[in-house]
Design brief:
The chain is mainly α. It contains nine helices and no strands.
Length: about 180
């Protein structure tokens, strides 16, 4: 766990990195390198874990250590390519922190950031699939499932993700599953 001072430092450095137009100043670059290094250490730790639930628990434990970077990046709203923020978006989804995932996702999609190579999809597609697939699975396996908790996140997601992404990338997956019940 990081201290409040470290969290504040991450926040300020992320804002500086996000505000730099021509080149990132040395302090901001060093801060990004430090956060990227910590992300790599966390990913190495996760590599040794096979169960998705165990990985999600570790990500939930680690995610607060990056909160300063997340908040600073979102506040600066600079749109610089950042593997860290894109990865943390997916971690937030994995931890079932959909409000955080959607806040980060709005930034990533708005600035058209490229996802790290291991994802192989656009940010909008990753965001849509990673949030929708568990909901669709639950709806398909339990016809009586209460999905009302997903209405707000799915509405937010619909506003964030381009319609074409859902049609071209996700529709084939959705067609194999039971449709979501319509709530009036």
């Amino acid at each position: 766990m990081i201290t409040p001072a470290q969290q504040h430092w991450q926040n300020v450095m992320a804002q500086r990195a996000g505000q730099a137009n021509e080149g990132v100043d040395h302090a901001a670059r060093t801060a990004h390198e430090e956060v990227l290094y910590r992300l790599r250490l966390a990913q190495a730790r996760l590599k040794g874990v096979q169960a998705r639930s165990a990985k999600a628990a570790i990500k939930k434990e680690l995610l607060p250590d990056f909160s300063g970077w997340i908040e600073g990046t979102l506040e600066a709203d600079g749109g610089q390519q950042d593997e860290v923020i894109a990865t943390l978006m997916v971690w937030a989804i994995d931890c079932d922190d959909l409000p955080l995932a959607l806040r980060i996702g709005a930034y990533v999609v708005r600035h058209n950031l490229i996802m790290p190579d291991n994802f192989g999809r656009t940010a909008a597609t990753v965001l849509t699939e990673e949030i929708c697939n568990p909901v669709l699975t639950q709806a398909g396996t339990d016809a009586d499932a209460d999905l009302s908790a997903f209405i707000e996140p799915l509405d937010t997601l619909r506003r964030l993700s381009p319609t074409r992404t859902c049609r071209t990338k996700c529709a084939p997956n959705y067609a194999r599953r039971a449709p979501l019940p319509v709530v009036v």
